[in-house]
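S., here's the first fold you wanted:
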Amino acid sequence: MEKLSIFCKNLYAHPEKPLREHLKNTGNIMRSVVNTIQFNVPDLKKDILKEVCYLIGVYHDFGKATKFFQDYLVESSLDKKNKLKNQKETKHSLLSAIATYYAVEKYLKENGIENDWKDFLLISSFIVVRRHHTNLISILDDLSLEDEEILKKQVDNLCSDYLKFLPHFEYVFDKLKTLESWSLRKFKLSKWLDKERGSLPSLILQLIYSILLDADKHETVLNRILERTCINSDLIDNYRTEMNFDNPKNDIDKLRNEIYLQVVRQVPKINLNKDRIMSFTAPTGGGKTLSAVSFAIKLRERIKNELGYSPRIIYCLPFLSIIDQNAKVMEEVFEVFSKKKPTSDILLVHHHLSDYSYKTYENEYDVDESEILIEGWDSEIIITTFVQFFHTLFSNNKKSIRKFNKIVGSIVILDEIQSFPHKYWLLFREVSTSLSEYFNTYFILTTATQPAIFEFTTEILEGKGNFFQKLNRTKIRFNIDREFTIHQLAEKLIGELKDISKNMMVVLNTIKSAEMLYKLVKKELINKGFEVLYLSSHIVPYERRQRIQLIKKSPEKKFLITTQVVEAGVDLDFEKIIRDLGPMDSINQVAGRANRNWQLKKGEVEIIRLIDENNKNFYSYIYDAVLVDCTKKLIKEEKEINEENFLSYVESYFKRLKDIISNDYSKEYIECIQHLYYDKIGNFKLINEKEKIDIFIELNEKASEYWNKYQEIVTQTQKNILERKCEFNKIKSEFYQYVVSISSEMSNIPPEINGFYFVSKDKLVEYYDSETGYITKKGSMIW
């Protein structure tokens, strides 16, 4: 053992990162994070969780103190290093997990902790360490030990002298020498979970796992976690004063001002211990974004003063198309208030195309550091997608779960909540109720069409019905008894617009139907003096943005043909809208683009029913039949609905829907959550779409520039994969402005170059139409 003793003098967790320093720092970070979170679990004190997490932190890389791992770490030859990496003796997570289990066991024994959660804490400690380099799997499949001979070899080659600084080390080391007594084999976890504990055990395990993953990343790359930042609770009040919003000059601005004042006055009335699931139901165009965020910031200040902690604000939206729009509003709020742009620690935009650049007023972090901070939601206000949020709640993926600890104790605004799939209502209700009850997480569900997810919520806009009744901007007219073909709809539009000078929009359910209609009416409408525009997801995001700006700013009369990409949140205003039949909430959302700013006496939304050449309704390619049938029954006797009655119709629609929807999907995932079947939880998909492929379109000179940069990055063979990924992250946001996602079933697929399907400038005519976007050749109904 003399050689081993000499070898153990300098051990490392990572190149140039001493193992002792890494373990101590990770443990301290975990302890400090638990200290800041809110935790109201009966029979489980936060102090116990704090010490358990500290032990997890200081033991999570225990297995790196073997000669096998250290040989791998210092090896300079890449070939030899790869061979060593793949050897079982080099793996460290399982040995570290067993050591962690024994350390936690000793702590609980010494402190006489024998409550109902004791065995679960032991199992959780083992699992999170065992899986901190992989993803979670079903817990019952993860408790046994494999390769016990390998474990014994690792223990024999453990630098025990180096590890004596660890708490309870002597106890742990003695236990490791007798692994045949491994106690997890005997523990009946499934019986314990069957005692109607709901989602709480899973949430606790996810929290511990998240804190370990986050602390490990922060310590490795940054050596610390960032200090929190203050936000002035009068931020949006000051912005509104500066912009003169509190001195309205027309009816719609007066209404927005009333809504804002009513909402912020509600903050002192909230019961901080009971009113944790709230709703904010206001008419479209009612200024919900600023009102909701101001409410959240003021609520945060009240929580800080009364409960002693500052919750983060997580603002979630269903569509990428409206994230940038809302983020710009918030950036402007901060700029007006502080005369400078908000830094990443104050306001962070995060989705799969986010810019990987993280800055504070003191520092600009490199790409590697930025990725840790952005993916970990290290900010006071996070603007993100439903996909990012819900795939953090319902996941087995370590990258997704890492930010779960930022959700705990936060204020979550779910904007356009009607977009959340009804099949998951019960699932969300189960988990959000536990998060609010046990972890002080506050939810604000914001929309003009509030779904019936919860039996009861605290509405923060008192007298919401009065605000809907004050509005008389729009009427919805139903014309669904008759069927329209695309050609018949084209004739109808051309005929109606002969003597009309209106901005008009037609919203269809499929890309195919929208494209066909555009080609049929474009020439005639141009001849009648219209600026004719087309939008769908087959147009690159760069061009979609340009067209939306043109619609907003051009003084010409405009005619827009589009799919549902404009339905929720996009700030457009038309005198008349025609929409193909869909669910009631979608109809109401699109009605919010008609006479949005109340400049006409009344706007009109006409609902038609469009059929294809096989006499099949176009809506059937997109929507669940239950949703449309529910809508048809609701409007069976109606020919027209005025905006003042929209609220009652939408509420009736969601009540009907709640009574008839199937909860099978939700019940399946609730069962998995309650029994910790994480590999099955990992199958959760918020959006069930057919497989798609990403295609880069070399549309213009800027696109060429980003494509060439991409080629330079992927061909830099002197850099490893991680380094090349970091380089790509610098341009990813701009690069994806020229990418469209197309069904893999399409026959018109371009060649693949270095991992991306690519349409070059000289091939645009074959693959990309400058007006309607990607050219598909298969006759399917594509959304």
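And the second, which I think is the more interesting of the pair:
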Amino acid sequence: MDLRAAGSGLNLVVVVNQASSNSVELANYYCEKRHVPPQNVLRATWAGNNIDWTVADFQAVIRDPLLSMLSARGLTNQIYYVLLSMDFPYRVTDGTSYNSTTAALYYGFKQDTSVPPGLPGSCSLPPASSNSYAGSELVFPFSPPSTAATNSFLTMMLTSSNLAEAKALADQGVTSDSTFPTQTVLLAHSSDVFRNARYATFDNAIFNTRLRGNYSMTRTNLNSPFGLNNLLGFQTGVSGFPITPAVFVPGAMADSLTSYGGDIFENSGQTALLAFINAGASGSYGTVVEPCAYLEKFPSPMAYFYQARGFTIAEAYYQSLTNPYQGLLVGEPLAAPFARAPDIAWMSLPVNAVLAGSTNLSLQWNSIDAAHPVQQVDLFVDGRYFQTVTNLSPAESNIVSVSLNGFSTNYMVPAGATIEMVASNLALRLNQSSFSNATKVNAYTHGDRIELQSFDPMKLGKQIPVSVSNSFGTATALTTWLSGSRSNLLDSTAYGIRSYYITNTPQNGDYIAITVIKNNGQTISVGVTNTTAGTTISQLIKSLFDVINTNATLQAADGIDVEDIVPHEDYAWAFGSDDHAVDFNVRARNAGWPASQVQVRISGSATFTFLPSGNTRLDQNVSDLRPRTHLYMAAGRTNLSFTFSLNTLNLPDGYHELTAVAYEGTHVRTEGHASRSVRFQNLALAAELSNDLGGTNVALESSVQFRVLANTNNIAKIELFSTGGTLGAALNQPSATFTVYGTNVGVGLHPFYALVTDNNGGQYRTDTTSLRFIGAEPAFELSITAPPPTLTWPATVGRHYNILGTTNLSIGFGTNATLVATNALAGWTDTNATGPRFYRVQTLD
């Protein structure tokens, strides 16, 4: 049984640049690693630079051929990932606006809108660039972004500074699948006041991953991961920083909020995303044009929570991006370290079984637990979607029940319900005033997930029990499953915080004070007075902060801290010379909701404006402070043996691979695969495919001749297929010979098969032959036997070898013979040898 993540090579198209040997070799390498079917490769040609191109070029070279290819090859309904194999430009422009290539293929090119005077045109947030998939926790093929003009694809670029590093990136992603790493993600609160914008979103993501119980994520004060290792992820906001090699484990995601992280092959003066990739990350993100500090344009730390659920890196990143149009995504899109795949197996179907007519086939599946049942099973034939075998929606009249804080309710599933619908309607039931007033808990839906938050500040999470159950109701099968993260709500580890703003220039005698009312009722007031002409608001407020941070009572465990201070006068280049204001945050020194109830009032002379005014609690981030837990909805069966009918008359006779794909029944839809080689036999028609080789390794510089011979003269067409589709066709003849040049298909493993069509429309698919085209010759061991001296060595078919010899090492080697290898083991006998001799063998290509 083959385990795949939420999506697989069956759902992915690799786009290769035929003008780049590196792009071709990398694409072939990835296809082998991810079992990408040969028809899922699109060969494009781009001879320009690898930095930028026009919208017209992007559409002509990639987008339009991709859409045509999917339609022509019958792949439209199964492809929702696209991988761009290096040496394509990463920035697209229409002359005024700039998008990344990955975003333009994800949901179309987006034009900038008007911006305030003095800012670059790219500092806008066009409504059309909104990504409705963001934060949805929905199944991507069924919920693509609403602003996409054509098909939408989870697009990433597989690239790096060189081919070896790009291959290593592919390996990191593939290696990570279902490994459930225990290493930590660091969310870095940096010292860069302008790029540190994401820190306010850290606590929500950390809280959610704590509820998963299988994922380690923590907040820290760092600018870069320099000198660290064994990280599962890193998120920061700094323009430039050093990074050491081998920082990240397979499956890691890492990025920085800065202007030009996506300018991967330009010297922008900032650290580009490739620094993370080359340090071992399996995915990274950066903008390709000045974006301004919009959080919506950068990945939310919720990306790590989505990964913890089992989503792939591509799904996790795109769900974390509200407006990704200027951002480049580089990495291995299918990597899913936390994917939980079901087990599926063929029953009573031997390898190479001969099938005819309409035949019954049997499968058995088992889920890993009740929270991850199998909902759907699809059948793919030779890598193409063929039919849905079963699809188990939530059964009408099933009942899901919730007991919360001592109160119970239930919900009966209606006809035609989806997982999302059941979750949404159950949340409505939990939020009915009569119920939520009793439980003091609110419910929020996110796709198949319900988040429960207590709004009772008098109760800790551990004092609020929660349990769920599922029952048949009046239905004949139980296919609706509600599960919970834990048996009670979890208390927050976030610190209460509130932002404050003070403006205007102080005059002599002006003062600013802070009053803190602790939760025990103790009141502390401290302040500063301006006694010097020319004092700025920046200087005065820093004096106040020094008083606060040296006051022993305020620095006690139940006190406060002042942090994230931004004096606008110190950054006149950003705020202007007439901006006399200060932003800062006040944070409780103890974690949790109760500690955040400390009250703070900033006050002073009438010269100043204070926002907010009056007594305020440090619970601006109240959603991060309230105790919470998660409920998850799923559909399907946990185990089942079943039989379905396959009509082999609807497919060509001959050799095929049947792949049953089982999808677990949450919105993650992790796949389990079971493949079996079979042969269909309904017609008298048959054919054979052969080649002129004596091995399976072929020199890239050579050619291979394939011969197809049918068993009848009544033939309309013979067509040869391999990576990227058809390689040639012959009409109205019972046999055909095709010459395949290694340089056309590139270094890597390639499957070859022929499809023969007779004049009556009958078809036969030959068995598949796989050949590996070899580029640079690897080192090999030379063996010698005598007499006479006979040399043998492992060879690459089609490659030229020079046999060198000498009787005296001091006079050097001369050429004894040159040969072309015709088999996987080459040999040569020295019939003229007399006395001691020395030999070498080298390639000529």
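Why I say that: The first strand starts at residue 2 and ends at 3. Residues 455 and 465 are 14 Å apart (CA to CA).

Talk tomorrow,
H.
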